[in-house]
Amino acid sequence: MTDWPQVRLHVVTGKGGTGKSTVAAALALALATKGRNVLLCEVEGRQGIARMFDVDPLPFAERRLTTGLPDADGEPGVVHALHVDPEAALLEYLSLYYKLGRAGRALDRFGVIEFATTIAPGVRDVLLTGKVFEAVQRNSRNKGAIHYDAVVLDAPPTGRIVQFLNVSNELAGLAKVGPVKSQADTMMTLFRSPRTAVHLVTVLEEMPVQETADGIGELRAADLPVGGVVVNQVRPRDLTPDQLATLDAGTVAGELAEAGLDETQVDAVVTDLLLGGREHAERRALETAQRAIVDALDVPAYELPRLPQGVDLGALYELAGLLRDQGLA
Predict the structure, then answer these.
(1) Which residues on neighbouring strands pair with residue 9, listed in sequence order?
(2) What global pTM score does this model have?
(3) Relative orientation angle of helices 263-295 and 249-258, to the nearest 10 degrees
(4) In DSSP terms, which residues pair with 41 in a beta bridge?
């Protein structure tokens, strides 16, 4: 059972380095079950989806990416991908609303599109989020397009997420009337509805956890729906608290001798093990303190392990299974 049965748009954000793109990809795989179609979108121009799934760079078009996580109750669904480019989105917008086909492409050659989206970042965000909005809420302009059961957005970092989603406010001083303003207002009805959830990814370190807490406060202040917190890259807890507390040279030396280690090697090995043990204990204490802060945020929390071997397609499916087991998907 998912914790988010009403949600159609899952927005995934997080401080840089926390693995938000990995979590977004795993979430898309987890949602694509029982024949469901899921769209995984990126808007930061990094072609992160292509790298994670080891495919060619994505164009500004929806592409079938892979099958979802298998499910015992039915066939897996399909994950599609979309790389949203602001310039291409503006060309599409001009073509749809102003019938500027060739003329729009001519503007692009003159650099007008890049100029427009640079001097008016609010317009850039409307174009990026507008494409995502259209994928969630298909209309008559897209006859024959795939209808998605869920859309996962690999969004900008936590520090920019409210500005990115709160497009009506960003346009307030730029466009008070007209189709761009109308489109922004329409998108806000989705972004502020129960059909959207903004999930935040963190690791158990002070700065990312604090940024997550601040981000939740900013989202709530902007009336944007907070989803869950995904605690990523959690280290294994191989030693119990009692074992960490009683870690001393005599105990370690005795156990090494029992294991058959040569007596002449014990001293050097004990020194290295004790150093590693103390560092592990300090790290555990830090993680315990940060986990307590996450628990106090009053939102559902999910944990994903640190994968020493890195993240490949097999690892993404593994993480997807853990997200589903915990109820995020």
Answers:
(1) 151, 196
(2) 0.83
(3) 120
(4) 82, 153
- On whether the CB atoms of residues 198 and 222 are closer than 8 A, the answer is no
| b (16+ CB within 10 A) / e for 171-190 | beeebeeeebbebbeebbeb
Q: For 103-149, how does the pLDDT look when each residue is reduced to its tens digit (9 = 90+)?
A: 445 545 545 555 455 545 567 777 778 888 888 987 656 667 899 99
**Strands 37-42 vs 150-154: parallel, antiparallel or unpaired:** parallel
What domains are defined for the chain?
9-237+298-326 (3.40.50.300)
Please write the tens of the pLDDT for every residue from 314-326: 999 999 999 999 9
Length of the chain in terms of residues written: 329
Give residues with Cβ within 8 angstroms of 27, minimum separation 6.
10, 12, 152, 199, 320, 323, 328, 329
Pairing of strands 63-67, 78-83: antiparallel
CA distance 3 to 223: 20
Q: CA torsion, points 116, 120, 124, 125, in degrees to nearest 10?
A: -170
Do residues 37 and 147 make contact, with C-beta atoms less than 8 angstroms apart?
A: yes
Look over the chain and give the mean of its residue pLDDT values, rounded to a whole number: 83
240-263 pLDDT, tens digit each: 666 666 666 667 676 766 766 666
- Closest to 53 measured CA to CA, from 18, 85, 26, 15: 26
